[in-house]
Write a structure and sequence with these properties.
globular; 31% helix; alpha+beta; 5-stranded antiparallel beta sheet; 11 helices; 6-stranded antiparallel beta sheet; 24% strand
C-alpha cells in the first residue's frame, strides 16, 4: 500500500461542518488519520464495477428470498415480513443509499464482499465531506477522489419522484411532497448524518423537516405527522431490526402505513434482507464460487480460516476470526450474540508498512459512488477503528 501524508483537518473546521465525532474518547486521538490511501484509477474503477455487479446480484437474490419465504434463514424478525414484502413489490419504495464493505482491492489483492450495510450505513459524512475537505485543506485537487456521493444521493432523492434513471423531469413531476427526517435523541453522529441527508433532500428540491423519533405521531390509517403536518416520505436513521425488537408496536403501525399507502419509508424495509449477513449465504448458494464472494455457511467451515459473525451486528461486536486449525486469531465480545451466526471464509485485508489493516467502504446510490477506508491495528475493525480518506494517483 502507498499512503500520502497530509495536514489533518482542525477540530474547529470539523465542528463547523457538524462533524462531531472527530476525536476518539478513549485516548483523545484524532478519528481521521493524517494519511490518504493512494488508489489507482484502475483500482477505483474495479470497486465501482464490483458494487454495480453485486447490487444486481442482491436484487436477484432478494426475489429468491421473497419467493421462497427465506426470512427465518436471514434471522428477519417475523413482525417485519409483511412490510418487507409490501416494500419489495412496489417500485415507489426506492433504496436511497447503502455501503458495501470490501476486503482487498489494492496492490493486486482481490476484492471480496464482506457485507452490505444497506439500511443504516455509517461513514456518510466521513466519505462525502471530510475526506474531500482534506484534499482542499492540503491544496490538492479535489477531483482526485472516487467520491461523487453527495450528487448521487441528491439524484436518488429526485428518483423518488421520477422513478427512473433520468431525473430531468423532477420539477415537472414534483407536487410539493414533504420528507420528515428523524433520528433518536442523544446520538450526535446519527443526528448529524440525518441532518446532512436532510440538506441534500432540500438541495434536490423537497420540502423537509427534522424531528426526534419520540416527537412523531404514527397513525396506521392516516400516516406520519409532526406538528400536525402530514409527511409523504419518512427517513429514519433507526435500524429496522431495532424497531422490530424494541418497538414492536411501531413495527406493526409502520406496516399498516405502508400497506395503506399513507407514507413511503426510507430506507425501505426490504433493505433489512440485504443488511442481514445471512444474505451472504443466499448469495453463495445462488452464485457459487463467484470471484467477488466468500464462501458462507450457517455451519463452521472445514479446513480453512473463517469468520464467525452475527446476522445483525455493528462495530465488530461478537465477531471471532479462526485460523485453518480452529485457533482464534481475533475476537470481540458484544451485544449481538442472540442473533443467528454465519461462518464466512476469511478474506485478506490490505495492510500498510506498519501492519495496520484497511477495509474499503463503497457507497451505493443507484451506482457505486463514494470510496473510503476504515483502518485499525487488528483484523476486526471495531469502534476503535479510524477513517482514512483516499486520493487517486496521477
Amino acid at each position: 500500500m502507498h499512503l500520502l501524508k497530509v495536514k489533518p483537518l482542525t477540530v474547529e473546521f470539523l465542528e463547523s461542518i457538524n462533524f462531531s465525532w472527530h476525536t476518539d474518547y478513549d485516548d483523545n486521538t484524532p478519528y481521521l488519520v493524517d494519511k490518504l490511501v493512494q488508489v489507482s484509477e484502475m483500482e477505483a474503477k474495479a470497486y465501482a464495477v464490483a458494487s454495480n455487479e453485486l447490487y444486481d446480484m442482491f436484487v436477484e437474490a432478494g426475489d429468491y428470498v421473497i419467493e421462497n419465504n427465506l426470512f427465518h434463514e436471514l434471522n428477519i424478525p417475523f413482525n417485519l415480513v409483511d412490510i418487507i414484502k409490501a416494500s419489495w413489490e412496489n417500485d415507489v419504495h426506492w433504496h436511497l443509499y447503502g455501503r458495501f464493505d470490501f476486503a482487498g482491492g489494492l496492490d493486486h489483492v482481490p476484492i471480496k464482499l464482506l457485507e452490505f450495510n444497506a439500511d443504516t450505513p455509517t461513514l456518510l459524512l466521513d466519505t462525502a465531506i471530510a475526506q474531500w475537505a482534506m484534499l482542499k485543506y492540503n491544496n490538492l485537487d479535489e477531483y482526485r477522489q472516487f467520491n461523487n456521493l453527495h450528487e448521487c444521493i441528491k439524484e436518488n432523492f429526485q428518483r423518488l419522484v421520477t422513478l427512473e434513471e433520468s431525473v430531468e423531469k423532477f420539477d415537472e413531476y414534483y407536487e410539493g411532497w414533504k420528507i420528515l427526517f428523524a433520528s433518536v435523541r442523544d446520538a450526535s453522529e446519527d443526528e448529524d448524518t440525518t441532518k446532512y441527508l436532510q440538506s441534500i433532500a432540500q438541495e434536490a428540491g423537497f420540502e423537509t423537516e427534522f424531528a426526534y423519533m419520540d416527537e412523531i405521531e404514527f397513525d396506521p390509517n392516516e400516516g406520519i405527522f409532526y406538528n400536525d403536518i402530514q409527511y409523504d416520505y419518512f427517513f429514519k436513521l433507526v435500524p429496522w431490526e431495532d424497531i422490530a425488537i424494541s418497538e414492536g408496536e411501531l413495527a406493526v403501525i409502520l406496516t399498516q402505513i405502508v400497506q395503506n399507502q399513507k407514507a413511503i419509508i426510507l430506507n425501505p424495509a426490504y433493505t433489512l434482507m440485504f443488511q442481514s449477513k445471512g444474505f451472504m449465504k443466499i448469495l453463495w448458494d445462488l452464485f457459487p464460487n463467484h470471484p467477488l464472494l466468500l464462501e458462507t455457511s450457517f455451519e463452521p467451515l472445514q479446513d480453512k480460516a473463517y469468520v464467525k459473525k452475527p446476522c445483525f451486528g455493528r462495530e465488530g461486536e461478537n465477531v471471532t476470526i479462526y485460523d485453518e486449525d480452529g485457533t482464534i486469531i481475533d475476537e470481540k465480545d458484544g451485544h449481538y450474540d442472540n442473533f443467528k451466526m454465519i461462518y464466512q471464509q476469511k478474506a485478506t485485508l490490505n495492510q500498510d508498512d506498519e501492519g495496520n489493516f484497511y477495509q474499503a467502504g463503497l457507497f451505493f446510490a443507484y451506482e457505486g459512488c463514494g470510496l473510503g477506508y476504515r483502518t485499525g491495528t487488528r483484523p476486526i475493525l471495531d469502534d476503535d477503528a479510524k477513517f482514512a480518506g483516499h486520493i487517486i494517483q496521477e
